[in-house]
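Aim 2, interim progress: modelling of the magnesium ion-bound target.
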Amino acid sequence: MTALLEANRISKSFRGLRALSEVSLRVDEDEIVGLVGPNGAGKTTAFNLMSGVTPPTEGDIHIAGQRINGMSPHRIVRLGLARTFQATTVFHDTTVVENVRRGLLGALGIRFFSTLFNTASYREQTRASTRRAYDVLERVGLSGHAHASAATLAYGHQRLLGIAIALAADPKILLLDEPAAGLNPAEAQMMGEMIVRLHKELKISVLLVEHNMRMVMGICDRLFVLQHGQLIAQGTPQQIRNDPRVISAYLGSDDDEAA
Ligand SMILES: Nc1ncnc2c1ncn2[C@@H]1O[C@H](COP(=O)(O)OP(=O)(O)OP(=O)(O)O)[C@@H](O)[C@H]1O
Ligand SMILES: [Mg+2]
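Predicted structure of the complex, ligand included:
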C-alpha cells in the first residue's frame, strides 16, 4: 500500500548542527500517529521538511507516492498535507472568519483556489472561501466566534483557529505541532477528543507532535520517538511506554511532562 506520507532517511543540518539524522517514518490512511521526543529532538524540523518550509539536506519525502523534495509549501498543501505551527499566529486586525479565509488563500495560492472552486470572479472566490471558512469553524467549535475580532480570542480558541485554518485546505493528512501547548488539563482533554473526532469525521490522518503524553498515549495508533535528531523507537503506545531507550531519553532530559 502506498503511504499517505513517507519520509525516507531524511536529514537536516543547520551550519554543522545535525537537527535531523536519517529519520524514516510513514503515516498511512486512517491513522493518528505521534511524533514525540524531548525539546530540541527535531520534531518541528521534521514538520518543516515535510511541509516544504525548508528542503531536507538528504533523503526523500513522498506524499501519496509523489516525491515532494524542493516543492513549495503551496504545492504540498495542494497534494493534501496541511500543518499548524507551534506558535499561534493570527491576523489580529480582523475577524475570526476572515482569518480562516486569508489563511486558506495564503496556503493554497489564489490562482489555484480559483481553479479548485471553479470561481472566476473575485466575488465568487470570496463567497466560496467564506463558506469553507464557516464550515471549518463549525468543526472546531468556533462558529460562535466567527465575527469576533481575532485579537480578542482566548488563547485556547486561538489554538483552535490555527487548526481551522489548516483544515480549510481540505487535507488528507494534518500535521499538528503541539496543539495542547499552554492549555490546561481540561482544555487539553477536549483538544484530544476533537482531534479524534476530526480524524473520524473528515477521514484524515494526523501526525501529532505533542509533549502531553497523556494525550499522545491516549489517541495515537503508533508513535515515533526522536532524540537528538535520531529515531530511537517506534511502535504502539504500549511498546513505547516500556521501551528502555525512550524511558532513559525522557529521564535524561528536563522535560517534566514526559510519561
Ligand atoms: N532554522 C534553524 N537554524 C538553526 N538551528 C535550528 C533551526 N531550526 C531548528 N534548529 C535546531 O535544530 C534542533 C531541533 O529543533 P526543533 O525545533 O526541530 O526541535 P523540537 O523537537 O521541535 O523541539 P521542541 O519540543 O522544543 O519544540 C535544535 O537544536 C534547534 O536549535
Ligand atoms: Mg518544536
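The first strand starts at residue 5 and ends at 14. The beta strands are 5-14, 17-27, 32-36, 58-63, 66-67, 81-83, 173-177, 205-209, 222-227, 230-235.
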